[in-house]
Amino acid sequence: MAEQTFNTLIIEPGEGFTLIRLNRPEALNALNSAMMTELGQALDAAEADTAVRCVILTGSEKAFAAGADIKEMAAKTYAETFLGDFLTGAHERAARFRKPLIGAVAGYALGGGCELAMMCDILIVADTARFGQPEITLGVAPGLGGSQRLTRAVGKAKAMDMILTGRMIDAAEAERCGLVSRVVPAADLMTEAKAAAAKIAGLSPIAALMCKEMVEAAFETTLSQGVRYERRLFQSLFAFEDQKEGMAAFLEKRKPQFKGR
User: Fold this and answer.
1) Measuring CA to CA, which residue among 194, 5, 175 is closest to residue 104?
2) Annotated catalytic sites, by residue?
3) What is the distance between the alpha carbons of residues 97 and 80, in angstroms, rounded to a whole number?
4) Beta strands in the chain (DSSP E)
5) SS3 40
6) Nearest C-alpha neighbor of 61 from the set 131, 125, 133, 132
7) Where are the alpha helices (DSSP H) in 69-188?
8) Are strands 9-13 and 17-22 parallel, antiparallel or unpaired?
9) Cα(235)–Cα(200) distance, rounded to whole angstroms?
10) Half-sphere exposure of 244 (CA within 13 A, CB side)
11) How far apart are CA 181 and CA 109, in angstroms?
């Protein structure tokens, strides 16, 4: 991934993956337009770089992201938000990212931060993580997909509880209700996230793209349509060298060397 300089992000290259760290410590990584524009640029670069097979998105020990930037929003009018399509475009870039996206969350992931975390494919969280959609306490509502993704992740009852009261849930409750993939000690968070990224980076990037598409299709289609879509993608993988290499390596009892073609 080509080197870029950002004001609100820190980019850390890895072996086959890239780590993107949200970096507005003075505002607990509140998501303003500048940060989301830069995040979109970083994800564009990662998506275009064939050497990058996976991305980790993280924040600080204190906060993944404590929400959208209230200072930026407070004075906006309905005309401005509607005509400017506020919170669309750059704010949704993570949801359109094609490669596997791992969220590594410690501390607060609230409002827009919770919504950004839910755009990730795998959520590995520290035992210090706290999730919530507290927009109602400000007289507004989720606007980055929180009412939709949260309900799909945890069900109507839990989503209604969180969104209507604004209460936070801790990492243990988030894991119990299916919001996150796994909970680890805070000290082990980045080690676990990087190990998962390295594991994905060592597998077929073509299969990874298609596996991600298959799972995402489950939220958009009926069961029969989803299975049919899965079957077609499965069959299409037999057109690539990675399938031949993977199966040959299995039969020959050796480690496969996937080349993404």
Assistant:
1) 194
2) 68, 112, 115, 135
3) 27
4) 9-13, 17-22, 54-58, 63-65, 101-105, 108-110, 122-126, 130-132, 169-170, 182-184
5) helix
6) 125
7) 70-73, 78-83, 112-118, 146-154, 156-165, 171-176
8) antiparallel
9) 21
10) 5
11) 15
Taking alpha carbons only, the member of 79, 104, 85, 88 closest to residue 144 is 88
Beta-bridge partners for 101: 55
Residues listed for the chain? 261
Residue closest to 179 by CA, chosen among 243, 246, 105: 105
Residue reference for tokens 């289609």: 221
Q: What are phi and psi of 32, to 5 degrees?
A: -100, 175
What is the mean pLDDT of the segment spanning 23-32?
94
- The 10 Å Cβ neighbour count of residue 173 is 16
Name the H helices within 119-178: 146-154, 156-165, 171-176
Residue 46, Cβ density class (10 Å: 0-12 exposed, 13-18 middle, ≥19 buried): buried
Q: How many CB atoms lie within 10 A of CB 49?
A: 14
- pLDDT tens digit sequence for 42-54: 999 999 999 999 9
Which residue is it, tokens 């598409």?
213
Model pTM?
Answer: 0.94
> What is the model's pLDDT at position 88?
85
